[in-house]
Design brief:
Residues 1-24 form the signal peptide. This protein has nine helices and twelve strands. By secondary structure, it is of the alpha+beta class.
């Protein structure tokens, strides 16, 4: 088991300070240019983030994909709780509450002095060598989070224990570990692409049905969009993600649940069967076949035919403690149109 000693952190911190000063100036230049012209392109953001993750990883020993996973999880929590986690625009999404950054017993909740922060047991560290522990500095916050994460060592179990101790929430640890697997496998941050859940064409129909009433099994609202298609029509993953659930549900019949990097849970129900590559824990890509349209559900395992064949597709957002559904129809329309445009562009390029 690898142990991170304080001396090692101090020695390697010198390397971080040197690289941080160079990186910080380049990032400042990039943002300055973007303010003069247009917002920073996604590709450039991914590039700058990867540089940051690699540099913090070199210092801390925490794999870059774990740092990326923590940062992305934190970003999704800010989207779910924007008022409680408001912070300045920056590359990283890691957020520390002022009291945790400066120390619970610190009389100055806005303390930026690394020495006094350490005295009061705060998490804030100086990652750039400017003698300031700034909770809005990309290097400082990620350096501090890396220190927290590597508290017990660098094995996956050690990282998991440290993350649980920090978040006190097994869901948080699970999400970060899922995200880390995705980033490690695909070896890139650029994983925001999506696909329509059915092969595009004229063999299906759908409209916005989210929020309408349902009565089987008790009164409830419809938490998704129904896409009607022939029995056996392929059902595809809409995203990069990890299969979280596969099997039977009395309401949804044969169903699959996929977690993506936006911390959205994609729910595919009433399937007639699963692709042989689909297993709990499997990683999937946009457009990958995961099953086929059916009419399963509303009864014991194997119940079929109580309604016309269709795919029930839902999306749920994780708030950290609970999940709630939101209307997937706008996303479906966008993904469908994007695929049509991509197909048209490809066709025109061959002329």
């Amino acid at each position: 088991m690898i142990r991170i000693q304080k001396k090692k952190w101090l020695n390697l911190g010198v390397t971080l300070i040197i690289s941080a000063s160079l990186f910080a100036s380049s990032v400042t230049d990039v943002y300055a240019k973007s303010e003069e012209t247009k917002p920073l392109a996604k590709e450039e953001i991914y590039k700058e983030r990867k540089i940051l993750y690699d540099q913090i990883s070199a210092v801390s020993g925490v794999p870059w994909y774990y740092l990326a996973a923590i940062d992305q999880y934190e970003r999704t929590m800010t989207k779910a709780h924007p008022k409680d986690r408001a912070h300045e625009e920056r590359l990283t999404g890691v957020f520390f509450e002022p009291q945790l950054w400066s120390g619970i017993l610190n009389p100055d909740s806005l303390d930026r002095n690394p020495l006094s922060i350490e005295v009061f047991g705060g998490y804030g560290l100086d990652g750039t060598g400017d003698n300031i522990a700034d909770p809005n500095n990309d290097y400082d916050v990620l350096y501090s989070m890396a220190r927290i994460t590597s508290k017990y060592g660098l094995s996956s179990d050690d990282l998991g224990i440290a993350l649980w101790e920090y978040y006190q929430n097994s869901r948080s640890v699970q999400r970060i570990q899922q995200f880390a697997r995705i980033y490690k496998h695909f070896d890139t941050l650029d994983l925001a692409q999506h696909a329509f859940p059915l092969p595009i064409g004229n063999s299906y129909s759908y409209r916005s049905t989210w929020g309408t009433s349902r009565s089987w099994g008790g009164r409830r609202i419809h938490e998704g969009t129904d896409l009607f298609a022939p029995h056996g029509y392929p059902v595809r993953s809409t995203c990069y993600g990890v299969i979280e659930i596969k099997g039977w549900n009395p309401f949804g019949g044969w169903r699959v649940g996929i977690r993506d990097l936006d911390n959205h849970y994609h729910y595919y129900a009433h399937l007639s069967g699963f692709d042989k590559s689909v297993h709990v824990g499997s990683l999937v890509t946009p457009g990958q076949t995961i099953g086929w349209v059916g009419s399963s559900g509303y009864g014991k395992p194997g119940t079929q035919g109580k309604f016309p064949p269709h795919l029930h597709y839902g999306i749920y957002r994780d708030s950290g403690l609970t999940e709630w559904s939101f209307d997937p129809y706008p996303s479906l329309r966008q993904w469908e149109n994007d695929e049509y445009r991509a197909r048209k562009a490809k066709k025109n390029s061959k002329k």
